[in-house]
Amino acid sequence: MDLNPAQIRKDLAYFGEFGKKGIGYDVAYLIEKIRQILNLDKQNPVVLVGAGNLGRALSNYNVYLSDQMKIVAVFDASPGKIGQTINNLQVKPMEDLIPTVRKLGVRIGIITVPASEAQNVANQFIEAGVEAILNFAPIIIKVPPEVRVHNADFTADLQSLAYYLVEKNTEA
C-alpha cells in the first residue's frame, strides 16, 4: 500500500487525538483505540440462519474468526437439518431464533436461506433486536433505517473482477 502519513494522521484525527505533535503515537494506546473504534474490544456474537451448503461453509469458517466475532448459534427450518451438528453447533429450529438472539444479546445475523425465505428471516432478526445483517440471499431485504444490511453478492463481485481485468488490459 502506498499510504501517505499525513492522510493517516488526518484519518485518525476524525476519531480523536491519539498522538502528540513532535513526539508521535503511543503504539499500544493507539492499537487499543483502533480496536475500540472497530468494535473489536467486545464480544460480538453472531447467529446464522440457513444450514445448507453456504451456511455450513460459513459455520466451519467460524474457527478462523476472531475471539470477538463468533457464530454462536445456527438455525434452519428444515426438519432434516435440525439437530445436526456443524462445527460444534447444533442446528436449532426457527422457533428458537428470537428467544436465543435475545438471551445471547446477539446484534449481528447472517442470512443464507433461499430468496423466498430471506425477508421472513430478516423480520425475525429485527423483532429479536439484531442491528446488522449479512445477507447472502439473492434478494434485497427491507429493513428499518436503524438496521444495517450488507448484501453479499458473488455474481456482482465476480463481474467487478472481470471488469478489473478488462481495465487492466486496456491500460497496458
Automatic annotation (TrEMBL):
One of its GO terms (biological process) is response to redox state. NAD(+) binds at residues 50-55. Keywords: Cytoplasm, DNA-binding, NAD, Repressor, Transcription, Transcription regulation. GO terms for molecular function: DNA binding; DNA-binding transcription factor activity. It is found in: Cytoplasm. It comes from the Bacteria. GO terms for cellular component: cytoplasm. The keyword Cytoplasm applies. Residues 39-140 form the CoA-binding domain. InterPro entries: CoA-bd, NAD(P)-bd_dom_sf, Tscrpt_rep_Rex, WH-like_DNA-bd_sf, WH_DNA-bd_sf. Transmembrane segments: none annotated. Homodimer. Belongs to the transcriptional regulatory Rex family. Modulates transcription in response to changes in cellular NADH/NAD(+) redox state. NCBIfam families: PRK05472.1-3, PRK05472.2-3, PRK05472.2-4, PRK05472.2-5. This is Redox-sensing transcriptional repressor Rex.
